[in-house]
Amino acid sequence: MSSPTPDALLGPADIRELAAALGVRPTKQRGQNFVIDANTVRRIVRTADVRPDDVVVEVGPGLGSLTLALLEVADRVTAVEIDDVLAGALPATIAARMPERADRFALVHSDAMQVAELPGPPPTALVANLPYNVAVPVLLHMLETFPTIERTLVMVQSEVADRLAAAPGSKVYGVPSVKANWYAEVKRAGAIGRNVFWPAPNVDSGLVSLTRRAEPIKTTASRREVFAVIDGAFAQRRKTLRAALAGWAGSAAAAEEALVAAGVSPQARGEALTVEEFVRIAEHKAAPVEPPARPADQHKESE
What we know:
alpha/beta
């Protein structure tokens, strides 16, 4: 494999020049903050443990800073970009700066939340500077849609990184923590300074590493059923699970029955539970009781 040219990655002047040529101004609406530091994108690729045989999917490539760094190492890279102008420009940037790797790059011009398939071999890794306003739903959608993704490293707002990597009992442990843990082992993997972005965000950024579980959690409940319990438990954090899951179970009494059957205290709160405990609760939801037939119905049945 021929090695890319040393100056292939984008620096601050390159980013601004590209943006000016395209008439691009990063928008808050799409959570765009472009990385302008080559050392930072190389660090992200190292931290992600990207390997020469990896097929990497990147969400929100922007002007291509991280994309180029991924192409230096990975076997191939597929980038998913929603922005019309950025999607139109990225293949030309790759061809100009890394021509020897251009045939290993593919672009999907789409909203990541709508992506159901990708061109080429199935992805083995997800590496992305995720748009901060949609980071969690995009991450969960990609993990669900592409089970071949073994390793993930995402850059997100620092508070979101804390929530994703939080353990039960933590004040910031919640829906993102439990749902991410359904798929993977999750941990914080570092912090990123504000000065490596253009424009510099007014929040700190963090890296989160997710390693897909070698074996999915064994359960008779579906993912949708488990996630419904998680959503219900955290919809009203201050309530006990008996009260918080009353809507999910049909009544507080039915919620208590499911909790006791699952070996979980009805007085516990969602932030104390592991993903496995949420799974057990989902497995013990009682089937809805059919209302007794009215006399008119009975009369019809006898006809």
